[in-house]
Amino acid sequence: MSRLYIETPSQAQTVIEGLYRDVERRIAASPPGLCPVDMALSFLKLCHAQTCGKCVPCRIGLGQLATLLERVLDDEADMSTLDRIEKTARVIADSADCAIGFEAAAMVLRGVRGFRDDYVEHIVNHRCITGLTQPVPCVSMCPAHVDIPGYIALIHDKKYADAVRLIRKDNPFPSACAFVCEHPCEARCRRNMVDNAVNICGLKRYAVEQAGVVPAPVCAESTGKRVAVIGGGPGGLSAAYYLSLMGHKVVVFDRLKKLGGMLRYGIPDYRLPPEILDQDINAILSTGVETRMGVTIGKDVPFEDIEKEFDAIYISIGAHNDKKIGIPGEDSVGVMSAVELLRDMGDGHKPDFTGKRVVVIGGGNVSMDATRTAKRLGAASVTCMYRRRVEDMTALAEEIEDAAAEGCEIMPLQAPVAIQPDENGRVAAIVTRPQMIGPVGSDGRPRPQNNGEPDRITPCDIVIVAIGQGIDSSAFAEAGVPTVRGAISALPDSFVKGKPNVFAGGDAVTGPATVIRAIQAGKVAAANIDNFLGFSHEIKSGVYIPPARLSTTPACGRVSPGSRPAQERACDFGLATLSMTENEAMQESSRCLRCDHFGYGNFKGGRQEKW
Q1: Which parts of the chain have pLDDT scores under 50?
Q2: Which of 269, 475, 535, 600 has the most CB atoms at less than 10 Å from its CB?
Q3: Neighbours of 348 (CB within 10 A)
Q4: pLDDT tens digits, one per residue of 50-59
Q5: Using alpha carbons only, what angle is made at residue 392 by residues 389 and 393, rounded to the nearest 5 degrees?
Q6: Contact yes or no for 409/383 (Cβ under 8 A)
Q7: Which helix (H) or strand (E) holds 56?
Q8: Does residue 242 contact residue 527 with C-beta atoms inside 8 Å?
Q9: Residues 95-107 pLDDT 10s
Q10: What is this structure's pTM?
Q11: Which pLDDT does position 211 carry in this prediction?
Q12: 148-156 and 160-168 helices cross at what angle (nearest 10)?
């Protein structure tokens, strides 16, 4: 008799593993807006099925907790049931022997406290208050609610200009977003249930490259109203574009030399060539938008004068100020901010880093832009230091991978504590304190803490700080515009309290965010300013969407064209990423499941043809 034997997966185990993968894909493809009580019950039952059954809290408690949640959903509960759910979940979380029981109960407990109103509605009014305002997952995940299935269908029919027109209905920066959007739409793509999300951003890029110059729509009849937009970034220009289409006279004020905001002064040319950005800006200006460049509000023009001259004002100044680390030696020669570096690049002033040892501090997309830019400026070595782990970096994963492939070093778990200057006051080294990852904080991210090792000294010539951006709202605060910790205080509909004709949105209100969120803010502001001025104009594309085709959906790999060779792209500022070919675009567009028709669209609102 053999003492041991080699275990091989049985047929049953193979099937179970497949079911696990199916569950993972379905969870990944879950759209926002599902009933939180129903979702909590589903996860609870999944956890209950995984328990060993050795302890009473798991074996009995989780089953009882599931029964209580079912009563809520079946309209058989009263308010005492809600209290019983909370008490039961707390007891299980406190007494379960393992993490399965604890985490399952803790999840229910967080839900009872986090979306208590949903429980109360189910119990008192026997209804679910969660409604899918936009049922198509990719559209609901896009802050601007672009009709993604529609333009993918147009791409598949090779109607590229119509695809661009459809995108512009909700996003006047189709070209720029095709290159730099963080594509949140792909996170919940239902194609995940079959294989992998559709490469939506790649298809958008293919469309804009094939379409060429697509004229903007004809503007509505002039209303005689004048609107000032302060800030020429993606948010301000989006508002200006839609307001101009509505027939209002729009004047954009910006303190920089060129329009584009952080699209021009915060994103390097190898990610977004300026000629691509200019395509979108030229289309916006073609609607009759007037610009006044090099104007600083409060210095060149008092805000009070703009209030008197215009019927409405939209403040979209962005977040262009750099943040300091607050460590000794930060004033040494050779220390600069990433915002400063990228702004100089946007103005065409390229510093010479030839032979320099560069250290970048930060872990976001801006830090990756600064890291890869420094490499292209001739630096002998570039090191990106971050106080957390690589997996905790907020930069896109592909940006981190590309930076490493280009020869940049990523050095995680290093917290800067000082910058050492030489006898001439120039940067000579940076001192960092090794970190270890610790307990998870209130933001859901594990916090770094000192690991007890001695400080580390890294020789360098240049230090680039990329730890965030600030908002300069002082001129507006002095004019009576309410602010909170430097950010302009505005309501979700962009209205500013106490200023009847003033609106605000974008980074100036929320703090630094993504391009598509700034565009969303501009769109919201345009609609509400139009109503404030006494109108109700509609924005529509006038594009016919091809009907959905009945077809099979066999599993198929996702097309990802990739980038130019690392050694080649690291030497210039030419576009780093590659485009799809026609065959790739046709295959990728055929992977779309057309959720606007099948499964969701016909019964829960369909597409939004106008707004």
Answers
A1: 603-604
A2: 600
A3: 9
A4: 888 788 888 8
A5: 95
A6: yes
A7: helix 56-56
A8: yes
A9: 988 888 888 898 8
A10: 0.86
A11: 95
A12: 170
